[in-house]
Amino acid sequence: MSDTDEATPDADGAWVSLFSGGKDSSWALYQALERELPVERLVTVHPAGDSYMYHVPATRLARLAAESIGIDLVEVEPDDFDAANATDSGDQGDAELEPLERALADLAEGLPGGLAGVTAGAIESEYQTSRIEAMCDRLDAELFAPLWQRDPLTLGEAMLDAGFEIRIIRVAAAGLDESWLGRQLDADALAELADLEREYGVHPLGEGGEFETLVTDGPHMDRPIRLAYDTEWDGTRGSVRIDDAWLADCRR
Fold first, then answer.
1. Which of 46-50, 79-83, 153-157 has the highest mean pLDDT?
2. Residue 167, helix vs strand vs coil
3. CA-based, 20 to 30 A from 90: which of 58, 127, 218, 248?
4. Residue pLDDT, tens place only, 156-191
């Protein structure tokens, strides 16, 4: 798999960034832009319900993020999924990948020089990453996964140092209560997550689905995303319910 030391601009092809609006895919995109990879499209998958392969909450806000970033967005819709006949998690993962692969194959035909590579925000999930890597092989595209097998706390600190503004929008793990919903992922939050890892086994960046995030600002964005929201909590897990979202006129 390619990493931050190997992915290089390709004059004969364009790059596509798999993008949910969460911190991991946003960091992969940011790292690609920092390396001057020619990212011509963002691709957001809107899963039909819970997903083994994709970030689920608030993916519709990827439109605002793409506008702020200044890169055209391609959206893969729920109607494109056909995982009803999946008999196990492996079959479902393969079925969930099919509409993404079709979308990338279609994009490759219209991109200048074709599809040179794909960025992905995987950290530790072999389940997801092996499928994305195999898809890239079939598409004859390079995979750039700059978070892969990096230390999660070091990654989190790097995101904050770069100026990422990250909000927690879903929690589902022991130790994470309603107070985490809407909370900014800052240095104090990272320190608390390190404690929760030791006590409960919570992944510091939520790689196991313990929590989900939304990047509302960063150095790759021209304007921050602002939110009006409420929270929903069932006693053990909860989500931010976003009532409105918009791009601010400027940063404060």
1. 153-157
2. strand
3. 58
4. 999 999 999 999 999 999 999 999 999 999 999 999
Q: Please indicate, yes or no, whether residues 106 and 22 belong to a single structural domain of this protein.
A: yes
CA 181 to chain CA centroid, nearest Å: 18
- pTM of the entire predicted model: 0.91
215 assigned to some structural domain: yes
| Distance of alpha carbon 224 from alpha carbon 155, whole angstroms | 21
Host domain of residue 227: 152-247
pLDDT tops 70 at residue 61:
yes
Q: How far apart are CA 66 and CA 71, in angstroms?
A: 6
- SS3 category, 220: coil
Same domain, 44 and 164: no
What are the tens digits of pLDDT across the range 73-99? Answer: 999 986 655 655 555 566 777 888 899
Contacts of 245 (CB under 8 A, 6+ apart): 61, 64, 225, 226, 227, 228
CA distances from 182 to 14, 179, 203 (A): 35, 8, 18
Spatial distance between the Cα atoms of 54 and 51, rounded to a whole number of angstroms = 6
Q: For residue 68, how far is the Cα from the chain centroid?
A: 16
DSSP H helical ranges for the chain: 23-34, 62-69, 89-110, 126-138, 152-162, 187-200
